[in-house]
TrEMBL record, chain A:
This is Uncharacterized protein. It comes from the Eukaryota. The lineage of its organism: Eukaryota, Viridiplantae, Streptophyta, Embryophyta, Tracheophyta. It comes from Arctium lappa (Greater burdock).
Automatic annotation (TrEMBL), chain B:
It comes from Arctium lappa. It comes from the Eukaryota. This is Uncharacterized protein.
Length: 326, 320
């Protein structure tokens, strides 16, 4: 028997100028989700059930970039993706290109438990959702005013960057609403909306699980798939740990980040925090990302190499922390 | 150190009594396509160009499960996926749900080189193909009579299996045994290293016979079916769901890097000690010019060559 541990995240790469009320809202949501997970763990729920439960809550709330509140494609639509993995046995499920499913992480779980496959996408995934009778909504349920505004800014930022007639010194005063020069994935951080959500849990039986969910990149090309639904990149769980990542999807894919944390634990014998630190430092190259992880021993750890990561973690012995900055 | 190349046309339950009319065209194709890769390497093409070239040839050949000759979804349609990765930069490109693009591997390469993304799928991938002016064709081009037959048999086996009160001895409860034995033909792929140690990997497939529409397998998932870094390049084939779970391609490289194993040892370890029997095969080359082609299935269509003149084309386990 091991003490349980849980960590949640709402995205790595935070605008340092994020208004305080937004910061408070985010922290309240993280706290609420953490407490939801903690109650479930106290009632002996299994890790896989807890990660799904917590991510559902994060998807339903419009604050972060998943489910309702997802970032928009270049066409102004929502295409959601998610994955879930159960450490013992390493069963996994993933979905991409969802447009009507209220809780993508739950559909990913159904792919894992009720289909002969591990990953379903686009209309095939939507058909499966209909067959399974999961709750579905019109695409505009997922679209928030905030995101419509950010999409507009992202398009403006793109067009200005490529319009050689505007001198580069004019960029700072072009009125796009860009307050900080930090960029991620080529977009100013204030419009980037990297707030993928995720949860990792180790239950009192030492079983680890992980789940990640997102609307993806703001202004992404229709059909673009990021790291969140890719097992080994954005999500991974095995006997020794559970990992969920967030940040620049392409860097996370290239670095197979989630699997990497487990691999250095398994093959190099590193402990959880050391593994997280190693991967963040050595495996992201120029990319910006963050990771949350738990180990079969009841440890919890996180790391990020960008300005801030919305996160929360708690362990059975009473430790609890919610934060954004270093 | 000289160059090395290895390519595969799928691992699976290839019966030892495969009739000559099914065996010879494939062996001949492996031979011809290997020569194409070898010539390109001798002409100093980059490994990235070589793996793309070789996989295009495999896609165009109707005898393998990629491009023309792809297996069919449960709807009788073709949904292709492909992935390419450059070892030095770890840049990669992947596509899924492609239905009209003649060479999915080239589309994957365009995603890598012409977009800020890594992975495009379904309508988005098809639209991008048209933007880039890639060759597209009517969907019926990809469908072969062999595959229509395979789908029919798979559906019948499903129906038969559900009529029994006892399951037909399945390898795992999700597998559908099919009479002619080669319905699980995987994927095609190629890995190459040049004399400077530059590595690249490419994989392409039509997926699983009778798969659900929208099903994505291991091929386009970096670290599962395809991977390359500065240590090695890997292309895997077999049961996609197992390869994803085992992060096969990444693990071979990880075991080399973190445990100091050589290529053959690392590849053998992952395929024979870690992956469930009957699910996995792979081709691999290392930055030192080594080649490995282990598989834990009955057979794997494969071919390899090294600059010093070594060459192998085979289907079942070698005698050695």
């Amino acid at each position: 028997m091991v003490g349980w541990a849980i960590a949640v995240h709402g995205g790595a790469g935070v605008d340092p100028n994020l208004p305080t009320d937004r910061q408070e809202q985010a922290k309240l949501l993280l706290t609420r989700c953490l407490n939801l997970g903690i109650s479930a763990l106290r009632s002996s729920a299994s890790a896989i059930d807890v990660v799904e439960l917590v991510v559902r809550e994060l998807e339903t709330d419009p604050i972060f970039n998943s489910g309702r509140g997802s970032a928009l494609t270049e066409k102004g639509t929502v295409e959601m993706e998610a994955s879930i993995m159960d450490g013992p046995g390493r069963k996994c499920g993933a979905v991409s290109g969802l447009t009507t499913v209220k809780n993508p992480v739950s559909l990913a779980r159904l792919v894992m438990d009720k289909s002969p496959h591990s990953y379903l996408a686009f209309s095939g995934a939507e058909n499966f959702a209909k067959q399974m009778g999961v709750e579905r909504m019109e695409n505009d349920y997922f679209i928030t005013e905030d995101n419509v505004g950010m999409l507009k800014q992202a398009k403006e930022a793109n067009s200005i960057l490529f319009d050689y007639r505007i001198p580069s010194t004019g960029y700072e005063s072009c009125g796009v609403g860009v307050e900080s020069p930090i960029t991620m994935n080529g977009l100013p951080i204030s419009v980037y909306a990297p707030e993928t959500v995720g949860c990792v849990v180790v239950d009192s039986q030492g079983r680890c699980a992980a789940a990640t969910s997102t609307g993806g990149l703001m202004n992404k090309k229709v059909g673009r798939i990021g790291d969140s639904p890719l097992i080994g990149a954005g999500t991974y769980a095995c006997d020794v740990c559970g990992v969920s990542c967030t940040g620049e999807g392409e860097a996370i894919i290239r670095g197979t980040v989630a699997r990497e944390v487990a691999a250095v634990m398994e093959y190099k014998g590193l402990g959880l925090q050391a593994a997280v630190d190693f991967v963040i430092k050595e495996r992201l190259d120029d990319g910006k990302a963050g990771v949350i992880a738990v180990s079969e021993k009841g440890e919890v750890a996180y790391g990020f190499n960008c300005v801030g990561m919305f996160r929360g973690c708690a362990t059975e012995d009473g430790f609890m922390e919610v934060g954004i900055w270093e | 150190m000289g160059w090395a190349i290895a390519l595969h046309g799928g691992a699976g339950d290839i019966p030892a009594d495969l009739p000559p009319e099914r065996r010879q065209p494939r062996e001949a194709a492996l031979h011809r396509i290997l020569q194409i890769g070898v010539s390109a390497l001798n002409a100093k093409s980059s490994p990235l160009d070589v793996v793309e070239l070789v996989v295009r040839e495999l896609e165009n050949c109707p005898h393998f499960n990629a491009g023309k000759g792809s297996v069919l979804t449960s709807n009788g349609t073709v949904e292709m996926e492909a992935c390419i990765m450059d070892g030095n930069s770890k840049r990669c490109g992947a596509v899924s749900g492609v239905s009209t693009v003649v060479n999915p591997i080239s589309l994957a390469r365009q995603v890598m080189e012409k977009t800020p993304h890594i992975y495009l799928a379904f309508d988005g991938a098809e639209a991008f193909a048209r933007e880039q002016g890639l060759e597209t064709i009517d969907k019926s081009y990809f469908i072969t009579t062999e595959n229509i037959e395979r789908l029919k048999q798979a559906k019948e086996a499903n129906r038969v299996q559900q009529d029994y009160t006892q399951p037909i001895k399945p390898k795992d409860e999700k597998e559908t045994p099919v009479p002619d034995g080669d319905s699980k033909l995987g994927t095609v792929g190629c890995v190459a290293v040049d004399s400077l140690g530059n590595l690249a990997a490419a994989t392409s497939t039509g997926g699983l016979v009778n798969k659900m529409a929208g099903r994505i397998g291991d091929t386009p998932i970096i670290g599962a079916g395809t991977y390359a870094n500065k240590f090695c390049a890997i292309s895997a084939t077999g049961r996609g769901e197992a390869i994803i779970r085992e992060t096969v391609a990444r693990d071979v490289a990880a075991v080399m890097e973190y445990k100091g194993l050589g290529l053959k040892e690392a590849a053998d370890y992952i395929v024979h000690q870690v992956s469930p029997k009957g699910t996995t095969g792979l081709v691999a080359v290392s930055s030192k010019g080594e080649v490995a082609m282990p598989f834990n299935t009955t057979g794997m269509f494969r071919a390899s060559a090294t600059e010093d003149g070594f060459m192998e084309i085979a289907i079942w386990p070698s005698e050695t």
